[in-house]
Amino acid sequence: MDSQTYLSELFALDGRVALVTGGSSGIGRAVAGALARAGAGVVIVARGEEKLAATVDELTAQGCRAAWVSADLSTREGVRAAAEEAAGVFGEPDILVNSAGINLRPPLGELGDDVWDATMAVNLEAPHLLGQRFGPGMAERGFGRIIHITSQQAHRAFVQSGAYGVSKGALESLARSQAEAWSPFGVTCNTLVPGFVMTPLNARLSSDPEKVAALAARTLVGRNGLAEDFAGAAVFLASRASAYVTGQAVFVDGGFSVH
Ligand SMILES: NC(=O)c1ccc[n+]([C@@H]2O[C@H](COP(=O)([O-])OP(=O)(O)OC[C@H]3O[C@@H](n4cnc5c(N)ncnc54)[C@H](OP(=O)(O)O)[C@@H]3O)[C@@H](O)[C@H]2O)c1
């Protein structure tokens, strides 16, 4: 067997369908691109139509199969409508990536119910509802991959960002519960854990050179993360190669968490 065939057997996503929330920006956009280039038909879901369309245009120009659905994942109705519309494009997904997330940042002492509710709705409830919608079908078909993007804040408090870490800690627990429910049927459920990644989510911190340098110094690699750093790990977790990896938190953080 030549090396290309061997690599394809392990990692190729040809014939798979992926749904990537938050696929129009940052980490989700890089993950959507990686899955599409590895062969999957990819549907990205977010609110802003302009960035959705630009991402899909870029991918289709490269010969990938990609489409977008505009939806607000902060309400149950929004999530349910998005799921149906997305599944209508290339069929029921084999791969679900939950990257849509918000970090509204009031410290816990100043946190109102509105921020708590919005944070839990987008960061935790939407991934849960999408799992409930697609997990059983994946299990029935005998193959599925659920990947959540969590945060180092699932493991430690950081820059006073209140409810955000709470939602991400719960998201890691959700991955374990999903893994328990569906792994016996070929559906693995894992999380990718970023450290500090230079994306629009971090616009405020990323524009402060001193803070950027201080955060880079906290990694072992010596730089902050880029969205592209998630491509390889996402393809691995979406592929046949990761069949025996489930319920895990895979840190893609340049060593931030062990330094
Ligand atoms: N960047 C980091 O340092 C970092 C660190 C740890 C964890 N993370 C996590 O990684 C994930 C991706 O973050 P990122 O840095 O790539 O952020 P980003 O560039 O801000 O992208 C966030 C994505 O989520 C979508 N989104 C936000 N609210 C939504 C809603 N209500 N309904 C539908 N879509 C919504 C956004 O599109 P619209 O606004 O158009 O809807 C966008 O596509 C998040 O879960 C984040 O918590 C990031």
Automatic annotation (TrEMBL):
Keyword Oxidoreductase among record annotations: yes
Please indicate if the UniProt record lists Transcription regulation as a keyword: no
Q: Which GO terms describe its molecular function?
A: oxidoreductase activity
Keywords attached to this entry: Oxidoreductase
Domain of life of the source: Bacteria
- Family according to the record: Belongs to the short-chain dehydrogenases/reductases (SDR) family.
Concerning PANTHER family, the annotation shows: 5-KETO-D-GLUCONATE 5-REDUCTASE, OXIDOREDUCTASE
Record-given protein name: Dehydrogenase
Species of provenance: Streptomyces cinnamoneus
